[in-house]
Protein backbone atom coordinates (compact mmCIF):
# COMPACT_ATOMS: atom_id res chain seq x y z
CA UNK A 1 0.00 0.00 0.00
CA UNK A 2 1.65 3.21 -1.23
CA UNK A 3 0.07 5.41 1.44
CA UNK A 4 1.59 3.42 4.35
CA UNK A 5 4.37 5.27 6.18
CA UNK A 6 6.46 4.66 9.34
CA UNK A 7 5.59 0.98 9.17
CA UNK A 8 6.62 -1.22 12.12
CA UNK A 9 5.92 -4.93 12.68
CA UNK A 10 5.03 -5.34 16.36
CA UNK A 11 4.85 -9.13 15.98
CA UNK A 12 4.09 -11.55 13.13
CA UNK A 13 0.70 -10.58 11.71
CA UNK A 14 0.46 -7.24 13.58
CA UNK A 15 1.69 -4.07 11.87
CA UNK A 16 1.69 -0.48 13.16
CA UNK A 17 1.68 2.34 10.59
CA UNK A 18 0.63 5.85 9.68
CA UNK A 19 -1.16 6.93 6.52
CA UNK A 20 0.47 9.38 4.15
CA UNK A 21 -2.75 10.25 2.37
CA UNK A 22 -4.35 12.01 5.37
CA UNK A 23 -3.51 15.24 7.19
CA UNK A 24 -3.71 13.93 10.76
CA UNK A 25 -0.93 12.00 12.53
CA UNK A 26 -3.00 9.18 14.03
CA UNK A 27 -1.64 5.61 14.06
CA UNK A 28 -3.31 2.53 12.55
CA UNK A 29 -2.77 -1.17 12.99
CA UNK A 30 -3.27 -4.00 10.49
CA UNK A 31 -3.94 -7.50 11.82
CA UNK A 32 -3.86 -10.80 9.98
CA UNK A 33 -6.71 -13.14 10.86
CA UNK A 34 -5.47 -16.46 12.29
CA UNK A 35 -5.79 -19.39 9.84
CA UNK A 36 -7.22 -17.13 7.13
CA UNK A 37 -5.89 -14.94 4.34
CA UNK A 38 -7.75 -11.88 5.60
CA UNK A 39 -6.73 -8.66 7.32
CA UNK A 40 -8.44 -6.10 9.50
CA UNK A 41 -7.30 -2.47 9.70
CA UNK A 42 -8.26 -0.32 12.70
CA UNK A 43 -7.66 3.34 13.52
CA UNK A 44 -6.05 3.49 16.96
CA UNK A 45 -7.14 7.11 17.65
CA UNK A 46 -3.74 7.96 19.04
CA UNK A 47 -0.87 10.14 17.77
CA UNK A 48 1.58 9.00 20.47
CA UNK A 49 3.48 5.91 19.32
CA UNK A 50 3.69 4.19 22.71
CA UNK A 51 -0.02 4.62 23.32
CA UNK A 52 -0.68 3.36 19.78
CA UNK A 53 1.46 0.24 20.45
CA UNK A 54 -0.60 -0.62 23.55
CA UNK A 55 -3.87 -0.13 21.71
CA UNK A 56 -2.64 -2.24 18.80
CA UNK A 57 -1.93 -5.17 21.14
CA UNK A 58 -5.35 -4.64 22.76
CA UNK A 59 -7.01 -4.78 19.33
CA UNK A 60 -5.09 -7.95 18.48
CA UNK A 61 -6.22 -9.58 21.75
CA UNK A 62 -9.80 -8.53 21.08
CA UNK A 63 -9.70 -10.11 17.62
CA UNK A 64 -8.40 -13.40 19.01
CA UNK A 65 -11.06 -13.39 21.71
CA UNK A 66 -13.80 -12.83 19.12
CA UNK A 67 -12.54 -15.64 16.91
CA UNK A 68 -12.26 -18.04 19.85
CA UNK A 69 -15.82 -17.33 21.00
CA UNK A 70 -17.34 -17.23 17.50
CA UNK A 71 -18.09 -13.49 17.65
CA UNK A 72 -18.02 -11.63 14.29
CA UNK A 73 -14.82 -9.70 13.65
CA UNK A 74 -15.92 -7.53 10.74
CA UNK A 75 -18.87 -5.15 10.50
CA UNK A 76 -21.56 -6.46 8.19
CA UNK A 77 -24.78 -4.43 8.02
CA UNK A 78 -27.72 -6.41 6.70
CA UNK A 79 -27.90 -3.98 3.77
CA UNK A 80 -24.43 -4.98 2.55
CA UNK A 81 -24.96 -8.70 3.10
CA UNK A 82 -28.24 -8.44 1.21
CA UNK A 83 -26.44 -6.88 -1.74
CA UNK A 84 -23.83 -9.65 -1.71
CA UNK A 85 -26.58 -12.26 -1.68
CA UNK A 86 -28.36 -10.48 -4.53
CA UNK A 87 -25.20 -10.66 -6.66
CA UNK A 88 -25.09 -14.44 -6.19
CA UNK A 89 -28.70 -14.72 -7.33
CA UNK A 90 -28.08 -12.54 -10.37
CA UNK A 91 -25.16 -14.82 -11.28
CA UNK A 92 -27.43 -17.86 -10.94
CA UNK A 93 -29.95 -16.22 -13.23
CA UNK A 94 -27.21 -15.63 -15.81
CA UNK A 95 -26.32 -19.33 -15.67
CA UNK A 96 -29.96 -20.28 -16.12
CA UNK A 97 -30.31 -21.88 -12.68
CA UNK A 98 -33.22 -19.59 -11.74
CA UNK A 99 -35.52 -17.37 -13.76
CA UNK A 100 -34.34 -13.91 -14.79
CA UNK A 101 -37.32 -12.40 -12.98
CA UNK A 102 -36.32 -13.92 -9.63
CA UNK A 103 -33.43 -11.50 -8.82
CA UNK A 104 -35.70 -8.54 -9.57
CA UNK A 105 -38.19 -9.75 -6.97
CA UNK A 106 -35.39 -10.37 -4.48
CA UNK A 107 -33.97 -6.89 -5.09
CA UNK A 108 -37.38 -5.30 -4.47
CA UNK A 109 -37.64 -7.01 -1.08
CA UNK A 110 -34.04 -6.43 0.04
CA UNK A 111 -33.96 -2.77 -1.01
CA UNK A 112 -37.52 -2.15 0.10
CA UNK A 113 -39.16 -3.57 3.24
CA UNK A 114 -36.11 -5.40 4.62
CA UNK A 115 -33.89 -2.34 4.21
CA UNK A 116 -36.33 -0.24 6.19
CA UNK A 117 -36.57 -2.91 8.87
CA UNK A 118 -32.95 -4.03 9.43
CA UNK A 119 -30.89 -2.37 6.67
CA UNK A 120 -28.41 -0.66 9.00
CA UNK A 121 -28.44 -3.44 11.63
CA UNK A 122 -25.31 -5.59 11.93
CA UNK A 123 -26.23 -9.13 10.92
CA UNK A 124 -24.76 -10.62 14.09
CA UNK A 125 -27.27 -8.55 16.11
CA UNK A 126 -30.30 -10.00 14.30
CA UNK A 127 -31.83 -12.51 16.68
CA UNK A 128 -35.13 -14.20 17.40
CA UNK A 129 -36.80 -10.95 18.45
CA UNK A 130 -36.13 -9.15 15.17
CA UNK A 131 -36.92 -12.26 13.15
CA UNK A 132 -40.17 -13.02 14.96
CA UNK A 133 -41.24 -9.37 15.04
CA UNK A 134 -41.16 -8.86 11.29
CA UNK A 135 -44.79 -9.83 10.49
CA UNK A 136 -46.23 -7.43 13.08
CA UNK A 137 -43.90 -4.63 11.96
CA UNK A 138 -44.77 -5.24 8.31
CA UNK A 139 -48.51 -5.09 8.96
CA UNK A 140 -48.16 -1.72 10.68
CA UNK A 141 -45.60 -0.23 8.31
CA UNK A 142 -46.75 -1.77 5.06
CA UNK A 143 -49.62 -1.44 2.64
CA UNK A 144 -50.97 -4.06 0.29
CA UNK A 145 -52.06 -3.56 -3.30
CA UNK A 146 -55.44 -5.26 -3.26
CA UNK A 147 -58.40 -4.05 -1.24
CA UNK A 148 -59.91 -7.53 -1.14
CA UNK A 149 -57.63 -8.17 1.87
CA UNK A 150 -59.43 -5.38 3.72
CA UNK A 151 -58.44 -1.81 4.48
CA UNK A 152 -57.38 0.08 7.59
CA UNK A 153 -57.34 3.74 8.51
CA UNK A 154 -54.00 5.43 9.02
CA UNK A 155 -52.87 8.80 10.30
CA UNK A 156 -52.02 11.65 7.97
CA UNK A 157 -48.30 11.18 8.67
CA UNK A 158 -48.37 7.45 7.89
CA UNK A 159 -50.44 8.03 4.75
CA UNK A 160 -47.83 10.55 3.57
CA UNK A 161 -45.02 8.10 4.40
CA UNK A 162 -46.70 5.40 2.30
CA UNK A 163 -47.08 7.89 -0.56
CA UNK A 164 -43.40 8.83 -0.30
CA UNK A 165 -42.37 5.15 -0.34
CA UNK A 166 -44.49 4.58 -3.44
CA UNK A 167 -42.90 7.60 -5.14
CA UNK A 168 -39.45 6.22 -4.30
CA UNK A 169 -40.44 2.81 -5.68
CA UNK A 170 -41.66 4.30 -8.95
CA UNK A 171 -38.46 6.33 -9.29
CA UNK A 172 -36.34 3.18 -8.85
CA UNK A 173 -38.42 1.41 -11.50
CA UNK A 174 -37.80 4.27 -13.92
CA UNK A 175 -34.05 4.13 -13.28
CA UNK A 176 -34.02 0.34 -13.67
CA UNK A 177 -35.72 0.67 -17.05
CA UNK A 178 -33.17 3.28 -18.09
CA UNK A 179 -35.71 6.10 -18.19
CA UNK A 180 -34.38 9.50 -17.24
CA UNK A 181 -36.38 11.13 -14.46
CA UNK A 182 -36.45 14.86 -15.19
CA UNK A 183 -38.39 15.87 -12.09
CA UNK A 184 -39.15 14.10 -8.80
CA UNK A 185 -42.08 11.71 -8.95
CA UNK A 186 -44.81 12.74 -6.54
CA UNK A 187 -47.56 10.53 -5.14
CA UNK A 188 -50.35 12.13 -3.17
CA UNK A 189 -51.83 10.18 -0.26
CA UNK A 190 -55.42 9.06 -0.53
CA UNK A 191 -58.00 11.52 0.80
CA UNK A 192 -59.69 8.63 2.62
CA UNK A 193 -56.42 7.86 4.45
CA UNK A 194 -57.04 4.14 4.13
CA UNK A 195 -54.59 1.50 2.90
CA UNK A 196 -55.15 -2.18 2.08
CA UNK A 197 -53.88 -4.78 4.52
CA UNK A 198 -50.70 -6.45 3.33
CA UNK A 199 -51.35 -10.10 2.46
CA UNK A 200 -49.94 -13.06 4.38
CA UNK A 201 -48.44 -14.45 1.16
CA UNK A 202 -46.42 -11.24 0.70
CA UNK A 203 -45.08 -11.42 4.26
CA UNK A 204 -44.19 -15.11 3.83
CA UNK A 205 -42.29 -14.37 0.62
CA UNK A 206 -40.40 -11.49 2.22
CA UNK A 207 -39.47 -13.65 5.19
CA UNK A 208 -38.16 -16.34 2.83
CA UNK A 209 -35.77 -13.71 1.42
CA UNK A 210 -34.93 -12.52 4.95
CA UNK A 211 -34.03 -16.10 5.90
CA UNK A 212 -32.05 -16.64 2.69
CA UNK A 213 -29.86 -13.60 3.39
CA UNK A 214 -29.19 -14.81 6.94
CA UNK A 215 -28.28 -18.28 5.62
CA UNK A 216 -25.90 -16.61 3.19
CA UNK A 217 -24.31 -14.73 6.13
CA UNK A 218 -23.81 -18.08 7.89
CA UNK A 219 -22.23 -19.55 4.76
CA UNK A 220 -19.82 -16.61 4.57
CA UNK A 221 -19.12 -17.01 8.31
CA UNK A 222 -20.32 -13.51 9.07
CA UNK A 223 -22.53 -14.97 11.80
CA UNK A 224 -22.59 -18.31 13.67
CA UNK A 225 -24.85 -21.15 12.56
CA UNK A 226 -27.09 -20.48 15.56
CA UNK A 227 -28.54 -17.54 13.63
CA UNK A 228 -30.26 -19.78 11.11
CA UNK A 229 -34.00 -19.14 11.21
CA UNK A 230 -35.69 -22.22 9.75
CA UNK A 231 -39.01 -21.80 11.53
CA UNK A 232 -41.08 -18.85 10.39
CA UNK A 233 -43.35 -17.18 12.96
CA UNK A 234 -47.01 -18.00 12.65
CA UNK A 235 -48.97 -15.19 11.08
CA UNK A 236 -52.00 -13.96 12.94
CA UNK A 237 -54.27 -13.94 9.94
CA UNK A 238 -57.52 -12.02 9.88
CA UNK A 239 -60.00 -14.79 9.10
CA UNK A 240 -62.81 -13.79 6.79
CA UNK A 241 -66.10 -13.66 8.67
CA UNK A 242 -68.88 -16.19 8.39
CA UNK A 243 -72.50 -15.11 7.82
CA UNK A 244 -74.83 -15.10 10.79
CA UNK A 245 -78.16 -16.89 10.45
CA UNK A 246 -79.91 -13.55 9.91
CA UNK A 247 -77.35 -12.57 7.24
CA UNK A 248 -77.72 -15.93 5.53
CA UNK A 249 -81.48 -15.48 5.35
CA UNK A 250 -81.00 -11.97 3.99
CA UNK A 251 -78.62 -13.31 1.35
CA UNK A 252 -81.31 -15.85 0.43
CA UNK A 253 -83.96 -13.15 0.00
CA UNK A 254 -81.79 -10.62 -1.82
CA UNK A 255 -80.40 -13.38 -4.07
CA UNK A 256 -83.84 -14.27 -5.45
CA UNK A 257 -84.58 -10.61 -6.11
CA UNK A 258 -81.13 -10.17 -7.68
CA UNK A 259 -81.87 -12.90 -10.22
CA UNK A 260 -85.20 -11.28 -11.08
CA UNK A 261 -83.47 -7.98 -11.84
CA UNK A 262 -81.23 -9.47 -14.54
CA UNK A 263 -81.98 -7.95 -17.94
CA UNK A 264 -80.23 -10.49 -20.21
CA UNK A 265 -80.65 -14.26 -20.60
CA UNK A 266 -76.93 -14.76 -19.95
CA UNK A 267 -77.14 -12.65 -16.78
CA UNK A 268 -80.11 -14.68 -15.57
CA UNK A 269 -78.13 -17.88 -16.22
CA UNK A 270 -74.99 -16.76 -14.33
CA UNK A 271 -76.91 -15.27 -11.41
CA UNK A 272 -79.01 -18.43 -11.04
CA UNK A 273 -75.93 -20.66 -10.97
CA UNK A 274 -74.09 -18.32 -8.58
CA UNK A 275 -77.03 -18.11 -6.19
CA UNK A 276 -77.44 -21.90 -6.05
CA UNK A 277 -73.70 -22.43 -5.71
CA UNK A 278 -73.75 -20.20 -2.62
CA UNK A 279 -76.57 -22.26 -1.12
CA UNK A 280 -74.66 -25.48 -1.86
CA UNK A 281 -71.48 -24.12 -0.28
CA UNK A 282 -73.27 -22.93 2.86
CA UNK A 283 -74.90 -26.34 3.30
CA UNK A 284 -71.91 -28.58 2.58
CA UNK A 285 -68.82 -26.69 3.78
CA UNK A 286 -66.95 -27.54 0.59
CA UNK A 287 -63.77 -25.67 -0.15
CA UNK A 288 -63.67 -23.59 -3.35
CA UNK A 289 -61.20 -26.04 -4.91
CA UNK A 290 -63.51 -28.95 -4.06
CA UNK A 291 -66.43 -27.21 -5.73
CA UNK A 292 -64.36 -26.59 -8.85
CA UNK A 293 -63.51 -30.30 -9.04
CA UNK A 294 -67.06 -31.55 -8.40
CA UNK A 295 -68.51 -33.66 -11.26
CA UNK A 296 -72.01 -34.99 -11.76
CA UNK A 297 -70.77 -38.54 -11.18
CA UNK A 298 -69.71 -37.48 -7.65
CA UNK A 299 -73.31 -36.84 -6.56
CA UNK A 300 -75.27 -39.79 -5.15
CA UNK A 301 -78.79 -39.72 -3.69
CA UNK A 302 -79.15 -41.88 -0.57
CA UNK A 303 -81.14 -42.36 2.63
CA UNK A 304 -80.00 -42.16 6.22
CA UNK A 305 -80.75 -44.72 8.94
CA UNK A 306 -84.10 -43.14 9.60
CA UNK A 307 -85.10 -43.32 5.96
CA UNK A 308 -84.69 -39.59 5.22
CA UNK A 309 -83.42 -38.59 1.81
CA UNK A 310 -79.85 -37.22 1.76
CA UNK A 311 -77.15 -36.48 -0.78
CA UNK A 312 -73.69 -38.05 -0.59
CA UNK A 313 -70.93 -36.09 -2.33
CA UNK A 314 -67.49 -37.39 -3.24
CA UNK A 315 -65.24 -34.33 -3.11
CA UNK A 316 -61.58 -33.86 -4.04
CA UNK A 317 -59.18 -31.04 -3.22
CA UNK A 318 -55.91 -30.21 -1.44
CA UNK A 319 -54.55 -33.58 -2.63
CA UNK A 320 -57.18 -35.48 -0.62
CA UNK A 321 -60.65 -36.84 -1.17
CA UNK A 322 -63.58 -37.69 1.09
CA UNK A 323 -67.31 -38.29 1.21
CA UNK A 324 -69.63 -35.81 2.86
CA UNK A 325 -73.32 -36.02 3.65
CA UNK A 326 -75.63 -33.15 2.69
CA UNK A 327 -79.36 -32.54 3.21
CA UNK A 328 -81.87 -33.21 0.41
CA UNK A 329 -82.09 -29.44 -0.25
CA UNK A 330 -78.55 -29.56 -1.67
CA UNK A 331 -79.79 -32.05 -4.23
CA UNK A 332 -82.52 -29.58 -5.20
CA UNK A 333 -79.99 -26.78 -5.67
CA UNK A 334 -77.86 -29.05 -7.84
CA UNK A 335 -80.85 -30.01 -9.99
CA UNK A 336 -81.56 -26.32 -10.61
CA UNK A 337 -78.07 -25.99 -12.03
CA UNK A 338 -78.34 -29.19 -14.06
CA UNK A 339 -81.60 -27.97 -15.61
CA UNK A 340 -79.91 -24.97 -17.26
CA UNK A 341 -76.40 -26.36 -17.76
CA UNK A 342 -74.92 -27.42 -21.11
CA UNK A 343 -72.58 -29.86 -19.34
CA UNK A 344 -74.64 -32.63 -17.74
CA UNK A 345 -72.72 -35.80 -18.60
CA UNK A 346 -71.37 -37.87 -15.72
CA UNK A 347 -67.78 -36.71 -16.26
CA UNK A 348 -68.72 -33.04 -16.71
CA UNK A 349 -67.99 -30.46 -14.03
CA UNK A 350 -70.98 -29.16 -12.10
CA UNK A 351 -69.86 -25.53 -12.05
CA UNK A 352 -69.24 -24.26 -15.55
CA UNK A 353 -69.63 -21.15 -17.65
CA UNK A 354 -72.62 -20.65 -19.91
CA UNK A 355 -70.98 -22.62 -22.75
CA UNK A 356 -70.32 -25.66 -20.56
CA UNK A 357 -66.61 -25.17 -19.92
CA UNK A 358 -65.33 -25.51 -16.30
CA UNK A 359 -65.59 -22.29 -14.29
CA UNK A 360 -62.18 -20.81 -13.47
CA UNK A 361 -63.09 -18.35 -10.73
CA UNK A 362 -66.35 -19.77 -9.33
CA UNK A 363 -68.19 -16.58 -10.29
CA UNK A 364 -66.18 -14.39 -7.90
CA UNK A 365 -67.29 -11.10 -9.49
CA UNK A 366 -70.93 -12.14 -9.32
CA UNK A 367 -70.51 -13.08 -5.66
CA UNK A 368 -69.05 -9.64 -4.92
CA UNK A 369 -71.96 -8.03 -6.79
CA UNK A 370 -74.54 -9.99 -4.78
CA UNK A 371 -72.80 -9.30 -1.46
CA UNK A 372 -72.70 -5.59 -2.25
CA UNK A 373 -76.36 -5.74 -3.22
CA UNK A 374 -77.18 -7.31 0.15
CA UNK A 375 -74.83 -4.91 1.98
CA UNK A 376 -72.92 -7.94 3.30
CA UNK A 377 -69.60 -7.49 1.52
CA UNK A 378 -67.55 -6.74 4.65
CA UNK A 379 -67.59 -8.70 7.88
CA UNK A 380 -67.38 -7.39 11.42
CA UNK A 381 -63.56 -7.07 11.18
CA UNK A 382 -63.82 -4.92 8.07
CA UNK A 383 -62.31 -7.68 5.92
CA UNK A 384 -64.11 -8.28 2.60
CA UNK A 385 -65.88 -11.63 2.47
CA UNK A 386 -65.03 -14.18 -0.19
CA UNK A 387 -66.15 -17.61 -1.38
CA UNK A 388 -64.36 -19.23 1.57
CA UNK A 389 -66.74 -17.48 3.96
CA UNK A 390 -69.49 -19.90 2.93
CA UNK A 391 -67.42 -22.75 4.37
CA UNK A 392 -67.01 -20.81 7.63
CA UNK A 393 -70.77 -20.22 7.63
CA UNK A 394 -71.47 -23.95 7.30
CA UNK A 395 -69.21 -24.76 10.26
CA UNK A 396 -70.64 -22.01 12.46
CA UNK A 397 -74.29 -22.83 11.80
CA UNK A 398 -73.74 -26.58 12.30
CA UNK A 399 -72.04 -25.99 15.65
CA UNK A 400 -74.92 -23.73 16.70
CA UNK A 401 -77.27 -26.61 15.89
CA UNK A 402 -75.29 -28.85 18.23
CA UNK A 403 -73.62 -31.06 15.62
CA UNK A 404 -70.86 -33.24 17.10
CA UNK A 405 -67.45 -31.64 16.51
CA UNK A 406 -65.89 -34.97 15.46
CA UNK A 407 -68.59 -35.55 12.84
CA UNK A 408 -68.21 -31.96 11.63
CA UNK A 409 -64.42 -32.30 11.30
CA UNK A 410 -64.90 -35.45 9.21
CA UNK A 411 -67.52 -33.71 7.05
CA UNK A 412 -65.26 -30.74 6.38
CA UNK A 413 -62.08 -32.72 5.84
CA UNK A 414 -60.24 -31.03 8.70
CA UNK A 415 -59.16 -31.76 12.27
CA UNK A 416 -61.03 -31.32 15.53
CA UNK A 417 -58.20 -29.03 16.62
CA UNK A 418 -58.81 -26.73 13.65
CA UNK A 419 -62.55 -26.66 14.38
CA UNK A 420 -61.98 -25.81 18.05
CA UNK A 421 -59.29 -23.25 17.24
CA UNK A 422 -61.26 -21.28 14.61
CA UNK A 423 -64.90 -21.75 15.58
Describe the fold and architecture.
The chain is an alpha+beta fold and 423 residues long. It is built from 16 helices and nine strands. It has helices at residues 49-68, 78-95, 101-110, 113-118, 128-132, 134-141, 156-176, 200-219, 245-260, 265-284, 288-293, 328-340, 364-373, 389-400, 405-412, 416-422; strands at 4-11, 14-19, 27-32, 39-43, 151-153, 194-196, 299-303, 309-317, 320-327. The chain has a four-stranded antiparallel β-sheet, covered by helices on one side. It has a three-stranded antiparallel β-sheet with strand order 7-8-9. Helix 10 (265-284) crosses helix 14 (389-400). The chain is elongated and about 100 Å long.
List the defining traits of the structure above:
423 residues; alpha+beta; four-stranded antiparallel beta sheet; three-stranded antiparallel beta sheet; 16 helices; 13% strand
Outline the fold blueprint:
Blueprint: E1 4-11, E2 14-19, E3 27-32, E4 39-43, H1 49-68, H2 78-95, H3 101-110, H4 113-118, H5 128-132, H6 134-141, E5 151-153, H7 156-176, E6 194-196, H8 200-219, H9 245-260, H10 265-284, H11 288-293, E7 299-303, E8 309-317, E9 320-327, H12 328-340, H13 364-373, H14 389-400, H15 405-412, H16 416-422
Antiparallel strand pairs: 1-2, 2-3, 3-4, 5-6, 7-8, 8-9
Helix pairs in contact: 2-3, 2-8, 9-10, 10-12, 10-14, 15-16
